[in-house]
Structures are given as C-alpha cells and as structure tokens.
Amino acid sequence: MIDLGLSKLALIGAVALIVIGPEKLPRVARTVGTLLGKAQRYVSDVKAEVNRSMELEELRKMKGTVEGAARDVESSIHSATSGVEREWSATASELTSSYESSDGVMSELVSYPEYKHPGKNWRLKRGSVPAWYKARQGVRTKALSGAARVARHRPPGAVGTARRPRQLG
C-alpha cells in the first residue's frame, strides 16, 4: 500500500497547483474526490460480495450437516418404531390366540362408541358467554315485546296497570 504522509500530500498539492492552475484546481479536486468515493464504494461492494459468498458456502456446509443429522434421527426412529410394531403384533397375536382359546368365538376386545358429529354451530355454543355472567352484567337474554317492556318499567299504581283476574274454567 502507498504510504502518504502529510508532507507527501502537501508536495502533491503544490505540484497540482502549479501544473493545473488556481482556476481549475477546485473543479479537478471535486472530480478526484468523487472518483475516489466511487472507487471506495466499488471496493466495499466487492468485499461485501466476497463475504456473502463465504457465508453462503458456510450455510451450505451447515445445511449438509443438519440434513445428515436429520437422516440419522429419522433412521433411528424408523428402526425403533419397527421394533415396537413387531412387539405389538406379537403381543396382539398372543392376546387373540388366548382369547380365542378361552371363548371359542372372536369378538371385539375393546368396544368404542360410535362417532357422533357435534352438530351445527357447536363452536358458537362452546364459545358463548355463560348465563350467570350475562345476569351479573345486566345483559338481556330474552327479547321482550314493546308492551311487555313498558309494563315492566311502569311504576306501580300507574293507570292501566290493574290486572284482570284469571278466569277459571
């Protein structure tokens, strides 16, 4: 790398002032500054691309190791489940043979209830607000007609509140 100290930069500036002249020097300095900025951005972009490619390669290696470990786990699970299946089938065959010999007729070992669909709107019914909560909060649970609402909120002794006696018969 080129080692530029303060004395070397001053010498380059003095030579540029003599060669280029004082009128064109600011414009040339601006152009050189923009070119140096573009070069620095280009170098940083190249560095970032190299770092990304290295990280991508590391991720690929890590992916391969994880996939290998997953395959090993899968094979161990398959071997364990096949052993359990073999034991289960052996136990089931022993049970069925002993059950047949004792009864003579093979019937259901375990009876399960028949599936019943929960019906329409079962999620709505399960998620509804309980009646005790509605009563505590003062939420109406039943719709009242207009006349019933007026009669309910009419003060006692008001006109038209006398009830007719029930007729028997």
- Class inferred from helices and paired strands: mainly alpha
Main pleated-sheet profile: none
First and last CA, distance: 120 Å
Q: Could you state the order of secondary-structure elements as H and E?
A: HHHHH
Look at the structure and give the mean pLDDT.
Answer: 80
Number of strands: 0
Q: Which regions are unreliable across 5 or more consecutive residues at pLDDT < 50? A: none
Radius of gyration: 46 Å
Helix content range: 55-70%
Number of helices: 5
Task: Provide a brief overview of the structure.
Belongs to the TatB family. With 169 residues, this protein is mainly alpha-helical. The protein has a domain at 9-99.
Structure report:
It is a single chain. By secondary structure, this protein is an all-alpha fold. The chain has a domain at 9-99. It is built from 5 helices and no strands. It has helices at residues 6-20, 25-103, 122-126, 131-137, 146-153. It is flat. The protein starts with 5 loop residues before the first helix and ends in a 16-residue tail after the last helix. One of its GO terms (biological process) is protein transport by the Tat complex. Pfam families: TatA_B_E (PF02416). This is Sec-independent protein translocase protein TatB. Keywords: Cell inner membrane, Cell membrane, Membrane, Protein transport, Translocation, Transmembrane, Transmembrane helix, Transport.
Key structural traits:
0% strand, mainly alpha, flat, 5 helices, 169 residues
